[in-house]
Write a structure and sequence with these properties.
This is Hydroxysteroid dehydrogenase-like protein 2. The chain is built from eight helices and nine strands. By secondary structure, it is an alpha/beta fold. The termini are far apart.
Length: 285
């Protein structure tokens, strides 16, 4: 990477997609803060922030670990402070931390919904709220939230989870109107991505892609110099196609079989006619 090395904060970077995002950014010259809650490896949750940093450093990259429970405003604030001290700033922040429970409303205890809301919606808002002043002062920065496009099928059978994730997408769409120089985008996978969870579920390899596809899409978003992606809810495969990629076979977990796409190929346009009218009242309704 030419010029001054850029820095990236990856929240939720211990394993799976988050770990791969951290590795991919480091391999492409970014100084990386590996932030997550796990500092001790267990059979249920193998791997730590320290393991990821060690792997980055062994490959010649620069990184440091930050213990961060995204439910804690002080943890996120402390993580950002460490980034400022060590890197002098943050060029890219990826919010990959997440809590998941695909259950119906009647099957979801309030404590479970509270957890998903705290980790998904509240944690993402907290990160964005705290990092924005820094990015706006520099008039540059890229924010990426792991969140889906808004469409009805996503709600079915997992409404409590969807509530917490779609709130993140609303943050992306809404905040985009308040930014200049800084951009915020949502990114979601087109297929199942190989992870610790899929390993526990013993999901057949033919259903999955490697986490490298998602990490590569994050990197492309981070390196987009224009503001064209501001406020966009993107799908990894579809976005990479706009960058000229046509062969996705390198991302297959099963080298012989392309996994089925789990996401729709087209999504609804959320813009209404009245939004385009030049009237003050439309911004309030």
């Amino acid at each position: 990477m030419a010029g001054k090395a850029k820095s990236a904060l990856i929240l939720g970077a211990t394993r799976g997609i988050g770990k791969q995002i951290a590795l991919t950014f480091a391999e492409n010259g970014y100084k990386v803060c590996v932030a997550a809650k796990t500092t001790e490896s267990t059979p249920r949750l193998p791997g730590t922030i320290h393991d990821v940093v060690t792997e980055i450093e062994e490959k010649g990259g620069e990184a440091f670990p930050a213990r961060c429970d995204v439910r804690s405003e002080e943890d996120i604030r402390s993580t950002l402070s460490q980034c400022m001290q060590k890197f002098g700033g943050v060029d890219v922040a990826v919010y990959n931390a997440g809590a998941i429970s695909w259950q119906k409303v009647a099957e979801t205890p309030l404590r479970r919904w509270d957890l998903m809301n705290q980790v998904n919606a509240r944690g993402a808002f907290c990160l964005v709220n705290l990092i924005l002043p820094h990015m706006l002062e520099k008039k540059h920065g890229r924010l990426i939230l792991v969140a889906p496009p808004v469409y009805n099928r996503f709600f079915k059978g997992k409404t409590p989870y969807a509530m917490s994730k779609v709130a993140m997408t609303v943050l992306v769409h809404g905040l985009a109107n308040e930014l200049a120089g800084v951009t915020i985008s949502a990114l979601w996978p087109a297929t199942v991505i190989e992870s610790h969870v899929t390993t526990l579920m013993k999901l057949p390899p033919c259903y999955m892609r490697k986490a490298t596809i998602f990490a590569d899409a994050c990197l492309e978003i981070a390196q987009e110099e224009s503001e064209i992606l501001n406020g966009k809810a993107l799908i990894d495969e579809d976005y990479l196609k706009t960058k000229g990629m046509t062969d996705f076979s390198k991302y297959r977990v099963d080298p012989e079989e392309e996994p089925n796409r789990m996401m729709p190929r087209n999504f609804p346009n959320l813009v209404v006619k009245e939004e385009l009218d030049d009237k003050q009242i439309t911004s309030k309704l």
